Amino acid sequence: MRYFVALIVVMFVAGCATGPIVKQPTAPFVQMNKEAVEFPSQDYLIQIGDELDIKFLYNPELNEKLPVRPDGRISLQLVKEVAVVGLTPSGLEKSLTEKYAGELKKPEITVIVRTFTAYKVFVDGEVGRVGLVPLVGPMTVYQAITSAGGWRETSRMNEIVVIRGATTGKPGVTVVNLERVLDNSDMSQNIQLMPMDIVYVPKSPIANVDTWADLYIRKLLPFGLPSPIPTPTTSSSIY
């Protein structure tokens, strides 16, 4: 719950702010990058929506290919309902072997995960296509945004918000400056992502002012205003 509340708060603030979005990140991007780099060494845990192949070496008539249901279970012949979410493939093999021991003479079972539902990141904000992006191998913030159709002219590229928590259980928010990545001045900003990370690309201050003017001024006046609204010369800039 805190994970999604954090997203809502960041999106609301990003929509209104003309200054820095997150003044004090709750997690340094160096630490978040380290978590993502080390994550592949962990055993995969089966998730809702994953597609599993259950193969019986000596009883191929019992072979099944089926998705994990929203209740975290699968239905198999002879043993019926089996809870699988949170188990590793080898852990599920052991559990099924025990369950089929009373039904088969020699249960030799292999579990293969065909699709990995949890291995995705969500990209939102000023990008070409908002939505889930498959996490196939190591993926950085830049690669995730590119996979989502790239950034827009209205994107605030020096304050990309990365929200983490669904995978590690430790909610964290950090901000990376992708402008420093694009000009090769600080490639460490291009952190590696983990499954279920959220990458939010906010609007630039100019875009925010222009959106506000469109909603509250242009439609009420009988004459036109310039578009975009010029940035006040006395205001501070984050670029």
Task: Jot down its keywords.
2 domains; wza like fold; Outer membrane lipoprotein wza fold like; 239 residues; alpha+beta
In short:
With 239 residues, this protein is α+β, with helices and mostly antiparallel strands. It folds into two domains: 2-41 and 118-220, Roll (Outer membrane lipoprotein wza fold like); 51-115, wza like domain (wza like fold, 2-Layer Sandwich).
Question: Could you please describe the fold and organization of this structure?
Answer:
- By secondary structure, the protein is an alpha+beta fold.
- The protein has two domains: 2-41 and 118-220, Outer membrane lipoprotein wza fold like (Roll); 51-115, wza like fold (2-Layer Sandwich), CATH 3.30.1950.
- Helix content is 26%, strand content 21%.
- It has six helices and ten strands; from the N terminus they run H-H-E-E-E-E-H-E-E-E-H-E-E-H-E-H.
- The protein has helices spanning 2-16, 29-38, 89-100, 141-147, 178-182, 205-216; strands spanning 51-56, 64-67, 73-76, 80-83, 109-115, 120-125, 131-134, 160-164, 172-176, 198-201.
- The strands form three sheets. A five-stranded mixed beta sheet has the order 7-6-10-8-9, with helices on both faces. Strands 2-1-5 form a three-stranded antiparallel beta sheet, with helices on one face. Strands 3-4 form a two-stranded antiparallel sheet.
- Strand 1 and strand 2 form a beta hairpin.
- It is elongated.
- The protein starts with a helix and ends in a 23-residue tail after the last helix.
